[in-house]
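Before a computer can learn anything about folding, someone has to put a protein's shape into writing. The outcome of that step, for a single protein, is printed below:
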Amino acid sequence: MNSNVSNEEAIAATKLWLEKAVIGLNLCPFAKGVHVKGQIRYVVSAAQTTEELLQDFLRELEVLAEASREKIDTILLIHPHVLTDFLDYNDFLEVVDAALEEVDLAGELQVASMHPQYQFADTEIDDITNYTNRSPYPTLHLLREVSIDEAVAAFPEAEMIFEKNIETMRKLGHEGWNTLGLAEVQRDK
């Protein structure tokens, strides 16, 4: 992980990944609308510890809960300096879920996980299907439950998105992924 990354570089790399992979490959059919409307808040945490990251996370939960959906519908909390190891990051997700409960926002907001070393259970580290959740930097994606519910209701066979993504990634393969030009922003070395 490059600990000297600037906020601007982290946001630019994340936006490029969002545009080319998430939207470009249609990995999340709901992402394009909020991206085009400018309803994604990008925040880079300077946290060096999990305690500092938790404070940033709680602050961003409050921002999302209090903002209108038209202004901010989702937040990407990018944290390039902490939880760079995927297993540590994955363990931290339990802390995140507990914090959502503690501030009484479970059921209103939720968190999706993205990491440069993301690995689904029962896959090999280099399995191309892991790349559906491989962001340039560790990222906590804060979402509104109501927005997810509306998107799922509007999207036919939303439950098939995961399977479709696996199929997309397998067809694309590592060579196809590399042609997206994201190799320079991936930090999974």
In short: The helical segments are 7-23, 31-36, 50-66, 86-102, 145-154, 161-179.
